[in-house]
Amino acid sequence: MGEMITADGVEIWVERRGEGPDVLLIAGLGDPAEAWQAQLDGLSDRYRLTAFDNRGAGRTRSPEESVTVARMADDAAALLRALDVPAAHIAGFSGGSFIAQELALRHPGLVRSLVLTSTVARADAYFRAMTGFWRWMVESAPSERAMLEAFYLWIYTPRAHADGTVDRFVEETLAFPHPQSAEAFQGQLASFIGHDTLDRLPGIAVPTLVLAGELDIATPPRFGREVAERIPGAEFEVLPGEAHQPFQESPDLFNARVDAFWRQVEARG
After folding, report:
1. Is the pLDDT score of 200 beyond 80?
2. Which tens digit of pLDDT belongs to each residue from 241-266?
3. Is residue 228 within 8 Å of 210, Cβ to Cβ?
4. pLDDT (tens digit, 9 = 90+) per residue, 105-151?
5. Which domain range does residue 153 map to?
6. What is the rounded CA–CA span in Å between residue 249 and residue 242?
7. Distance (Å, rounded) from C-alpha 107 to C-alpha 114?
8. Total domain count for the chain?
9. In sequence order, which residues have a C-beta less than 8 Å from that of residue 262 and are 6 or more positions away?
10. Cα(115)–Cα(262) distance, rounded to whole angstroms?
11. By the number of CB atoms within 10 A of the CB, which of 86, 155, 167, 184 ranks highest?
């Protein structure tokens, strides 16, 4: 079961699982800690995993000030300190990977390694046009179900739409008792659109693995390749047949890959 943790004055909903080296899981746009369920279940025999709701998502309220990626990175740092975690392996997907980049740049002592999935360093015209449509969609969709069905076209593979996986995710999201408001969705989205670490990425000095889905149309592999090329020594890998959220669609594949990476980092001390 999760709990509320006060971190630098913000009440953050946290779920922790397992024992071992510390891992902090940072979710993306609109997603609560439950987005990482397959990792909480599949990796807790080897790691102490912490997942949490970013401000404006799930059970973590957003204070009155505007949401920024830097502020959410500071939230993550404050959470680690509140939990007495001296440093952790950081894994973020999509907008959560933006937060992870800022965390490594703003609070380098707290970061042992980075896993950046479906990541971007700087929005381009395509990304801005796509997310601009999402802003309109969350306001104008005829129902929450219709909004999710449209939004998930960018997120999951054709096979997930065909085999019922997307239908299951839609039902789970609709049943979640802490839905994100349209205003909070747009606030997070605006912060992610404004994210820009491109020129600062060479300052990241920890081992980094960048993962991209071959079929990802929201953050195509070219974005991840650019991030990896800017971070010294970063590894870049395209996952064949995967889209924006491989950690949900193919958790065994994802868990094995990040486990191998973290084991390498641990072995190097």
Report:
1. yes
2. 999 999 999 999 999 999 999 999 99
3. yes
4. 999 999 999 999 999 999 999 999 999 999 999 999 999 999 999 99
5. 3-267
6. 8
7. 13
8. 1
9. 21, 23, 47, 89, 113
10. 9
11. 155
Quote the tokens at residue 268: 């190097």
Q: State the DSSP string of the chain.
A: --EEEEETTEEEEEEEE-SSSEEEEE--TT--GGGGHHHHHHSTTTSEEEEEPPTTBTTBPPPSSPP-HHHHHHHHHHHHHHTT-S-EEEEEETHHHHHHHHHHHH-GGGEEEEEEES--SB--HHHHHHHHHHHHHHHH-SSHHHHHHHHTTTTS-HHHHHTTHHHHHHHHHHH-SSPPPHHHHHHHHHHHHT-B-TTTGGG--S-EEEEEETT-SSS-HHHHHHHHHHSTT-EEEEETT--S-HHHHSHHHHHHHHHHHHHHHHHT-
Closest CA to 204 of 236, 231, 233: 231
Determine the Cα–Cα distance for residues 250 and 260; give it in Å rounded to an integer: 16
Q: Are residues 11 and 3 in contact, defined by beta-carbon separation less than 8 angstroms?
A: no
Q: What angle do CA 228, 26, 123 make, to 5 degrees?
A: 50
- Domain of 145: which CATH number? 3.40.50.1820
Q: Please compute the mean of the pLDDT values over residues 187-209 and round it to a whole number.
A: 97
User: Who's near 5: CB < 8 A, 6+ residues apart?
Assistant: 11, 12, 13, 14, 52, 79, 82, 83
Radius of gyration of the chain (CA): 17
Cα separations in angstroms, 201 against 11, 146, 212, 226, 239: 30, 38, 18, 10, 23
Contact 39, 247 (CB under 8 A): yes
**Which residues, 6 or more positions from 6, have their beta carbon under 8 angstroms from its beta carbon?**
12, 82
Residue among 51, 28, 6 at smallest CA distance from 191: 28
